Amino acid sequence: MEFGIVELSRLQFAMTAMYHFLFVPLTLGLSIVVAIMETVYVMTNRPIWRQMTKFWGTLFGINFVLGVATGITMEFQFGMNWSYYSHYVGDIFGAPLAIEGLMAFFLEATFVGLFFFGWDKLGKVAHLVVAWLVAIGSNFSALWILIANGWMQNPVGAQFNPQTMRMEMTDFFAVLFNEVAQAKFVHTVSAGYVTAAVFVIGVSAWYMLKGRHIELARRSITVGAAFGLASAFSVVLLGDESGYSATHSQKMKLAAIEAMWDTEKAPASFNLIGFPDQKARETHYAIEIPWVMGLIGTRSLTTEIPGINQLVAQAQDRIRSGIVAYDALMHIRAKNGAPDPADTAIFEKHSADLGFAFLLKKYIDDPRQATDAQIVAAANDTVPTVWPLFWAFRIMVVLGFGFIGTMGYLFYRASFKGMNYPRPMLKLAVIMIPAPWIAAEMGWFVAEFGRQPWTVDGVLPTALSVSSLSITEVSLTLAGFVLFYTVLFIIEMGLMLKYIRKGPYQDVEETEAWVQRHKNRLAGRRNADSIAMPAE
């Protein structure tokens, strides 16, 4: 593959985004887990729950700081590498990002400070409120960012202005309640909750294998298993909702994920496994499960899901319609603010397809001069590379069901076996720590790579979105970002491992005294039961 400005800019943004998302899911999930633990402390007044809150809160704080650093750097790229994109859709995309910065981030950042430095200055209930505000702020940040991203996947509530040559917002609430954005939000935060649950369980399992901090570890696994089981079910169910919304808004992405080359008779089957061949447009050695894709994608037995070949044919029609819109737009622009009503009417009729005409810019400066061969080539460009999408989706799904099974077993052991866990299960929990990050990165890869060749689906091609930079400039910044993010990742891992090895170091004497009293009470209760048994 030859790397030009577009490919290098995509690589740079993909690298920084995927680095950043190493921190995001753990922040989302740990904020809730910490708040739950502090809630139990306030309700029971047991020192061990305060110690658990502080310990896991410390790990949350390390991850939060690194997440902020990588997130701020990533957002600068919109102006650096994607200036035309920022100009073209900034009126819509900028609004939720601005709200995220002004409302959610400031809320989160302000109360993070109170959480860490307010233990001895705030009452228990007041500090608990702070903990929940940190959690709410973290999730609000995700909401607004995903609203912005969801609009890129399904651009509703906006229209193109021929005078300004930009997209402009027409309905803020349509952007806010975009079905893709809402489905992405609940799916993403649920994935973050699973990530935190697996992390808490894995670290706690390591403590139990080492024979350290047993009481904290057993209770942490209990919280993680209950929270993680509910979250894992949510991820699967809400992922189904994302698939259903893609049936309406991103048909090509859905067809590529499934490697569905031709439209099948409803209800469509699901390719459990196979080897997509994009050149031949067929899937070799496919193992199909009848009806499943039709039920997931349409929730009916009679609605068809269009295949890739049919969608390419539709893209050709939309490109030709877009050429008509482009021609009318050029006439409107030539009239200097006094357009012919006939041109305006033609443009309004075909404006929804203007973005498809822009696909021809890859082949010719003036889309109106495009040949049939160029139109066919541009239509074929609407098909993303299928095999990585196909496999990334299946890796994500397999891991998702694996989380359900693991969490279900641990929840059973916590609830009915006295929080006693077999050593093989504890070892598996430690090994599984990276798994939710792999699943999350696969999910984002499917979401973003599957949208290509569009920056904004059906509106703005990626090839037109980049800044006017040289290959040398982008290469240097790419190398700089790789170095910077690698250093941050090493710092993150070093700090996390340091504090995990150190273990809970706050409120040690008070907690140990309570644990001993608790053990004595349990021992006394068992002795009383054994004495009472013969009398019965």
Protein topology:
Blueprint: H1 5-20, H2 24-44, H3 47-80, H4 83-117, H5 124-153, E1 158-161, E2 166-169, H6 172-176, H7 179-210, H8 214-249, H9 251-258, E3 270-277, E4 282-289, H10 292-298, H11 308-334, H12 341-350, H13 354-358, H14 372-380, H15 386-416, H16 423-431, H17 435-449, E5 454-456, E6 460-461, H18 471-502, H19 508-535
Helix pairs in contact: 1-3, 1-18, 2-3, 2-5, 2-7, 3-4, 3-18, 4-5, 5-7, 7-8, 7-16, 7-17, 8-15, 11-12, 11-14, 15-17
Short description:
The chain is mainly alpha-helical and 536 residues long. Helix content is 73%, strand content 5%.
Order of helices and strands: HHHHHEEHHHHEEHHHHHHHHEEHH
Largest sheet: 2 strands, antiparallel
The side-by-side strand order for the widest beta sheet comes to 1-2
Query: What is the helix content?
Result: over 70%
Tell me, briefly, the overall form: elongated
- Average the pLDDT over all residues and give the rounded result: 89
Oligomer: single chain
Number of helices: 19
